């Protein structure tokens, strides 16, 4: 049924690469703060090593994960098999948001296909690899990736994307700092 694994081995990495959807959960330290769970899709997840993973973070309507990681670093990533053999994988660990300007940003973002909605890369040091049965997870059939975020980001252009991120991604819904304003370089 359930099993704690030593690391992300080749079998788990192969299984991860076949999944079209994963979930990311974080929480603030405050008891009044809201716990966040976000679905993620696209070709946006990479296993970097036995206990290190990263995912591409797209521009979104909020920035809860980034704010929680800035505050305390705690994160859980969950994959579910929606077809084939039932399986659930949880990766527990600590994460860091790697945004443009960070020394590792270019290295990490190069691991993924270029995407106009890219906001950052989330780098996770995995502390626990846990699998469970997934017997109750329903069977779904994958049809296609959505391209709506890509089209929206392209239509915004870089200037309006920056403005959007400043307005919607600077703080979490609990008012924790998330993404910082880019440094003013005098460019128009």
CATH architectural name:
Roll
Q: Which percent range fits the helix content?
A: 10-25%
Flag low-confidence runs. 183-188
* CATH topology annotation: Pnp Oxidase, Chain A
Tell how many strands the DSSP assignment holds.
Answer: 8
**Distance between the first and last residues' Cα:** 57 Å
Assembly status: single chain
Number of helices: 4
CATH superfamily: Electron Transport, Fmn-binding Protein, Chain A
- Cα gyration radius (Å): 17 Å
Bin the strand percentage.
25-35%
What descriptive keywords fit this protein?
single chain, 188 residues, alpha+beta, Pnp Oxidase, Chain A, 8-stranded antiparallel β-sheet, 4 helices, globular, disordered C terminus
Topology summary:
Layout: E1 3-5, H1 10-17, E2 21-26, E3 36-41, E4 45-49, E5 52-58, H2 64-71, E6 74-80, E7 88-99, H3 105-109, E8 118-132, H4 148-168
Antiparallel strand pairs: 1-8, 2-3, 2-6, 4-5, 5-8, 6-7, 7-8
Summary of the model, kept short:
This protein has helices spanning 10-17, 64-71, 105-109, 148-168; strands spanning 3-5, 21-26, 36-41, 45-49, 52-58, 74-80, 88-99, 118-132. With 188 residues, it is α+β, with helices and mostly antiparallel strands.
Please describe what this structure looks like.
Helix content is 22%, strand content 32%. Strand 6 and strand 7 form a beta hairpin. The protein has 4 helices and 8 strands. Mean pLDDT is 94; it is low at 183-188. It has a single domain (3-135, 145-168), classed as Roll (Pnp Oxidase, Chain A). Strands 1, 2, 3, 4, 5, 6, 7 and 8 form an 8-stranded antiparallel sheet that branches. The protein is of the alpha+beta class.
